[in-house]
């Protein structure tokens, strides 16, 4: 969670910033840089997982501050992360 809050996580924008990869482009949609905001709220490749998250926490709570800081959002957020499989190679299932 701290990694998502700070942006220092295994998303391509951060990996590009620290010189681990050549491009920051999202590996899932290849449309724009893979930032935390893009991953959680915009990437079309995660639309299904995001719809389940939205159903769980409500559309009015689908913004960064609420997702990353509200206790009631944590379990649904971790389920979203698990459903996308984005960090599975790094951390395994959550």
UniProtKB/TrEMBL annotation:
It comes from the Eukaryota. This is Reverse transcriptase zinc-binding domain-containing protein. It comes from Gymnopus androsaceus JB14.
């Amino acid at each position: 969670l701290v990694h998502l809050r700070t942006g220092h996580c295994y998303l391509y924008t951060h990996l590009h910033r620290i010189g681990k990869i050549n491009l920051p482009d999202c590996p899932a949609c290849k449309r724009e840089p893979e930032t935390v905001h893009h991953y959680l709220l915009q990437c079309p490749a995660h639309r299904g997982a995001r719809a389940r998250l939205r159903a769980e926490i409500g559309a009015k709570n689908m913004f960064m501050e609420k997702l990353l800081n509200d206790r009631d959002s944590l379990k649904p957020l971790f389920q979203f992360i698990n459903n996308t499989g984005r960090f599975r190679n790094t951390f395994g299932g959550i």
